[in-house]
Amino acid sequence: MASDATAELAIYPGSFDPPTLGHLDLIERGRRIFPRLLVAVLRNAGKQALFTSGERVDMLREACAAMDRVEIAEFDGLLVDFAQERGAGALLRGIRAISDYEYEFQMAWMNRRMAPAVETVFMMPGEAFAYLSSRLVKEVAAGGRSVAGMVTPAVEARLRHKLHLA
Ligand SMILES: Nc1ncnc2c1ncn2[C@@H]1O[C@H](COP(=O)(O)OP(=O)(O)O)[C@@H](O)[C@H]1O
Ligand SMILES: [Mg+2]
């Protein structure tokens, strides 16, 4: 994109394994800023995911069904390549605690070096979601505890099923 153009499309990338209410809070905030928001599910983070990327896409599609101007897609490879391919002008990332900073800054600098025209934008979730992570949600669910209020009821049901709890 031209360097003086406004970011019409932002990409919100992540593993979303599974999507939490923190992710959804960020999507709501992002779509107030950007005309279009593309939530991009990393197909294989090299990490072992509980849900397939197809399942993660489905959960996000369900959760965002009522949100105009929000789309969901999968990608693999470098995020900057995907962003350029889609013509995105911005990358949206969430910052919860100071502990997120180091990793996020490293990535943002590296992405800027590779794609200077693509701006990384950080947003904070609402306080109620500041401690939520997919990893902890999975641990709590695997321990047989309720994750109500941390994920949507549909995601909670999928977690129980996936973990053979129901
Ligand atoms: N509770 C939350 N509140 C705000 N942002 C969050 C929350 N949980 C995750 N995020 C942000 O959402 C993005 C995707 O997170 P995640 O699914 O863990 O993928 P990744 O593997 O890229 O970290 C990251 O920018 C992360 O900081
Ligand atoms: Mg993460």
What does the model show?
The protein is an alpha/beta fold. It has a single domain (9-129), classed as Rossmann fold, CATH 3.40.50. It has six helices and five strands. It has helices spanning 21-33, 53-63, 79-86, 98-114, 134-142, 153-162, and strands spanning 9-14, 36-42, 70-75, 90-94, 119-123. Strands 3-2-1-4-5 form a five-stranded parallel β-sheet, sandwiched between helices. It is globular. The mean pLDDT is 94. Bound molecules: adenosine-5'-diphosphate and magnesium ion (MG). The site of adenosine-5'-diphosphate has 17 residues, from α1 and β4.
Which key features would you list for this structure?
single chain; 166 residues; alpha/beta; Rossmann fold; five-stranded parallel β-sheet; binds adenosine-5'-diphosphate; binds magnesium ion
According to CATH, what is the class? Alpha Beta
Tell me about the largest β-sheet: 5 strands, parallel
* CATH T-level topology: Rossmann fold
**Model regions low in confidence, pLDDT < 50 over at least 5 residues:** none
> Which molecules other than protein and nucleic acid are bound?
adenosine-5'-diphosphate, magnesium ion
Number of beta-strand segments: 5
Compute the number of structural domains: 1
- Gap between N and C termini: 48 Å
Helix content: 40-55%
**Name of the CATH superfamily:** HUPs
Biggest sheet, spatial arrangement of strands: 3-2-1-4-5
Let me know the average pLDDT.
94
Judged by helices, strands and strand pairing, the structural class is alpha/beta
Strand content: 15-25%
